[in-house]
Write a structure and sequence with these properties.
Elements lengths: L7 E5 L4 H12 L3 E6 L2 H10 L4 E5 L5 H15 L2 E6 L14 H22 L3 E10 L12 H20 L6 E7 L14 H14 L8 H12 L10 E4 L7
Parallel strand pairs: 1-2, 1-4, 2-3, 4-5, 5-6, 6-7
Bound molecules: nicotinamide-adenine-dinucleotide.
Length: 249
């Protein structure tokens, strides 16, 4: 399998869930992969399980200097970038009446500012005809209680991606987003909610998905491979829902 042969991919949030599954698939497809994450220990653990040509870089995407350093380390090692996958994100819920500036800043710094700064740093190094990919979400198309700021952050990212698509078109760089529905990843355990509430919420999500279940990280990784590969050479500016139909009916 060599759909990404000689391609260099930088993936944020690559030590867990969707990012990790994508890193594994990209490596299987012969890409050189820069796996980035916030926690050094988690990256080290993950590195032990991987095979192929890769490096790991510790970077907190909410910090401008870390985004700069991520791109510097990636390009110092591999010389260029072909695929930039902005995947890191958080989804802590809060009722609208309890939203604080801190909650807003935390989510927007990671989910919106991080990708925007990383892209600014990366653009001079992204090859013409390269590709930029976002993990967005279907949340900005619906209205899930408690997820107002998270949904707003993903809506902001979608708007940003449209402008970016236009601004990089002369270089043949394709910009696409994936909008997952509920996917079985560690993100739900990081929401700061009691386990029984998470389980109840999970049941509710699964019931509302036409396919009746959560998706897997691997199912999102398959979409991330498709959109990054030449198979999607005429697909540009889209947001691809990978959600078992949740956003459509
Ligand atoms: P996850 O928690 O397994 O992965 C999130 C990754 O982002 C982790 O590697 C985490 O370390 C990283 N991250 C968080 N804050 C960071 C920071 N400040 N700096 C660097 N890295 C940071 O969850 P996941 O479900 O794989 O999430 C990946 C993306 O998918 C997120 O953008 C999330 O919003 C999106 N998403 C997930 C679902 C779902 O149901 N799981 C649905 C829609 C969208």
């Amino acid at each position: 399998m060599n759909k990404l042969k000689d391609k260099v991919a930088v993936i944020t949030g690559a030590n867990s869930g969707i990012g990790l599954a994508t890193a594994k698939l990209y490596l299987k497809e012969d890409a050189k992969v820069v796996l980035s994450g916030r926690r050094k220990e988690a990256l080290e653990e993950v590195a032990k399980t991987l095979e192929g040509d890769f490096i790991t870089v510790v970077a907190d995407v909410s910090k401008d200097e870390d985004n700069k350093s991520l791109i510097e380390q990636a390009t110092n090692h591999y010389g260029k970038i072909d695929i930039l996958f902005l995947n890191a994100g958080i989804a802590p819920p809060t009722p609208t009446t309890e939203v604080t500036a801190e909650h807003y800043n935390q989510i927007f710094d990671i989910n919106v500012k991080g990708p925007i700064i990383a892209i600014k740093e990366a653009l001079p190094h992204i090859n013409d005809n390269g590709t930029i990919l976002f993990t967005n979400s279907i949340v900005h198309q619906k209205g899930f209680d408690g997820l107002s700021i998270y949904s707003a952050s993903k809506g902001a990212l979608r708007a940003y991606a449209r402008v970016l698509t236009s601004e990089v078109k002369s270089r043949g760089i394709r910009v696409n987003s994936i909008a997952p529905g509920p996917i079985d990843t560690p993100i739900y355990g990081k929401m700061g909610l009691p386990q029984d509430v998470v389980e109840e919420m999970g049941k509710g999500f699964a019931e509302s998905v036409p396919l009746g279940r959560f998706g897997t990280s691997e199912e999102i990784a398959n979409a991330a491979l498709f959109l990054a590969s030449d198979d999607a050479s005429y697909i540009n500016g889209v947001e691809l829902e990978v959600d078992g139909g949740l956003s459509q009916i």
